[in-house]
From TrEMBL:
Keyword Transport found: no
Source organism: Cryobacterium frigoriphilum
Ranges for domain Glycosyltransferase subfamily 4-like N-terminal: 21-204
Top-level taxon in the UniProt lineage: Bacteria
A Pfam family recorded for this sequence: Glyco_trans_1_4
Protein name as catalogued: Glycosyltransferase WbuB
GO molecular function: glycosyltransferase activity
InterPro entries reported in the protein's UniProt record: Glyco_trans_4-like_N
Keywords noted in UniProt: Glycosyltransferase, Transferase
Amino acid sequence: MTTRPLRILIIGLHYAPEATGNAPYTTALAEGLTALGHCVRVITAHPHYPQWRIRDGYGARTTRESIHGVPVTRLRHYVPAQPSNLQRLLSELSFGLRLLTTRWGRPQVLLLVSPALFSTAVALSRARLLHRRLPVGIWVQDLYSLGLTETGTGGGRTAALMRRIESATLRHATGVAVIHDRFKLALVRTLGVTDDAVHVIRNWTHLPEPPAVDRAAVRTAHGWAATDTVVLHAGNMGVKQGLENVVEAARLADARGLPLRFVLLGNGNQREALLARARGITRIQFLDALPDADFQATLRSADLLLVNELPGVTEMSVPSKLTSYFSTGLPVLAATDAGSVTAGELQLSGGGVRANAGDPAALVDAVIALAADPGRCQSLGAAGQNYCHENLSQAAALTRFDRWAHCLSDESGLGSKARLF
């Protein structure tokens, strides 16, 4: 129990039952702060990611429910079926506009989750205009301006405009939490946020400890042969993942008659294009998103767990899948640039190896080398799991968030004067 319970409002575009991206972390944060004794409310959208379709059973203009003791208000917003950059912008802005007319109650601390940047900017503007003493913390999971620059989308003028919007939004928050030290450097050096306003709170392993897995049964159910070396990529299939590299690696494995199977598990706006590109290739498999228990069993039944990034993606994001990967005790293979955040995480953890991004032949060669060295695979998996247990625990992260929320509240001077929600 925290010494001073706070009334905390969390606003973010993604929440349970979404199981990928930011949703598991936002959900765990809300539930964890509630367990610590805080009075937490969440305002979010209807579940729609990564399918970009509102899930069956949801979709009313405004709904309210309670999930594991957390009151959740859901707002209907524009969800594009085939999201381009412009459509994503309109989607975020439509959620932001709904926030302008939604009752917030009387929170003592407001926590905004970015992405989504534009709805975060709208919510921050409302807070500064109508709730001037309300402390606002922004939890940054991805950096938009770096994303545009590193993926080469939008052009230089768009990236510059995005940098100004992102900088202004983050500089006007009471405080900012980021998930990696490299993000903090980018905020301070590139976006002009003061050093003492930025706190590093690492993401954690959000999957519960699973029961024993019958690997043979799971592999048989997915059609994986005992002789296959299964390389599994789990999560979003978007532009920054650059998964064309994996499709071409599978094409090479076909041509060379190698006993490899590349598995892409999940969804995303590039999935249909990847399916079309992979037509006729036998050594690649696409799996739909799975419920948590099946997801964990599938993850643990692979041989290698893959992070694949577009060449040039070095600073924009920390793959949230790494925390789940490390928890399995399996080796991680990352097709990423040498100077990327992902490469740094692998080196720090000792839990995997790197291949050059955008090089299918290098990816295939790395898989073959690991498959031929079971002892090394075991050592890598054990190192990653140990790193996960020592550095990526949910309890440690929640303790830091609890302290951060109190620091934000102390800066405002609100104390206990605000009324209950």
